[in-house]
Design brief:
By secondary structure, the chain is mostly helical. The chain has one domain (7-276). The chain is built from twelve helices and two strands; from the N terminus they run ααααααααααααββ. Residues 287-291 have low confidence and may be disordered.
């Protein structure tokens, strides 16, 4: 069982968030174009490849399969994004899908916009009372790679920040560390808040998910949230050719190179899921997965 964090941890998390935003603000007093551009690239790599492709589409929804080395790269990048380990991340996200915009949803905007955006992170006691949020996903707990990256997360995350400061100095730490992490944090949290408040709804669903096509261009397709809630198993969030979905492009590129298979995607022509690149016969079948 993964225990909910105590008051000491929540106090540390609040102090860390305050320091993160202070550092992001201070970065503008040490502006260097190279660090600024590198921070944006690192944001995209960790947020899109790590969190969107790795945590979200690969682990949470089992939208595709890939070789272990590719999986390790994706989980490594996700660990740099500051989104906790894969088991904790998937545990909360699957609960969100199961109870989207109900009283059980961990971060519904029906309890307030800022609750959905940030304050829900400090509702550990409330989340700890939900049995499904106390037990980690069985399929990930049985996965040695997920167990390793769950345990290694603090060393990976804080070690990377220390390495950035050591290698690139104060300005590099502010831009590649605090600024990049603040942008990554709010771009991901905006899907919980903005993505459930306004935009365009192409599918009539009981939840409050919306599509924000412009913001999807910066979040790897994650802001096509109404599409995603309508077809959660789909590795492709875009349902129209002009909808930006960099996460899907990354998965399609892996499939074209033979590095991803059994890619499930929503086909708007048939209105159902299709399979891109069926599993190679030489690849052993995995254990049954969850949602």
């Amino acid at each position: 069982m993964l225990k909910p964090p105590g008051l000491l941890f929540l106090g540390f998390a609040a102090a860390l968030l305050a320091a993160l935003h202070a550092g992001a603000f201070a970065a503008f007093f040490h502006f260097e174009a190279g660090f600024f551009l590198a921070a944006l690239l690192l944001w995209q790599a960790t947020g899109i490849l790590g969190v969107s492709v790795g945590y979200h589409r690969l682990l949470n929804h089992r939208s595709f399969e890939c070789p272990r080395p590719i999986k390790w790269v994706l989980l490594f990048l996700a660990g740099l994004a500051g989104q906790l380990g894969p088991i904790r991340w998937v545990r909360v996200h699957r609960f969100h899908h199961a109870h989207s915009d109900t009283d059980l949803d961990p971060h519904t905007p029906r309890r307030g916009f800022w609750f959905a955006h940030l304050a829900w992170l400090f509702q550990a006691g409330r989340r700890g009372n939900e049995p499904a949020l106390q037990e980690p996903p069985a399929d990930l707990l049985a996965d040695p790679d997920c167990r390793f990256f769950e345990r290694a997360y603090p060393f990976l995350f804080y070690g990377s920040l220390a390495a950035i400061g050591w290698g690139w100095g104060w300005a590099g730490f502010l831009w590649l560390g605090t600024f990049r992490l603040a942008v990554t944090l709010h771009s991901i949290l905006s899907i919980n808040s903005v993505g459930h408040v306004f935009g365009r709804r192409d599918f009539d669903l009981p939840d409050d998910s919306w599509n924000l096509r412009l913001w999807a261009a910066f979040t790897g397709g994650e802001a096509l949230h109404n599409n995603h809630h309508a077809h959660p198993r789909s590795a492709r969030f875009a349902c129209r050719p002009w909808e930006p979905d960099a996460g899907w492009l990354a998965i399609r590129s892996l499939a074209a190179l033979g590095l991803a298979w059994n890619v499930r995607y929503y086909d708007p022509v048939t209105g159902s899921l299709a399979i891109l690149r069926p599993r190679p016969q030489s690849i052993p079948l995995p254990s049954p997965a969850g949602t």
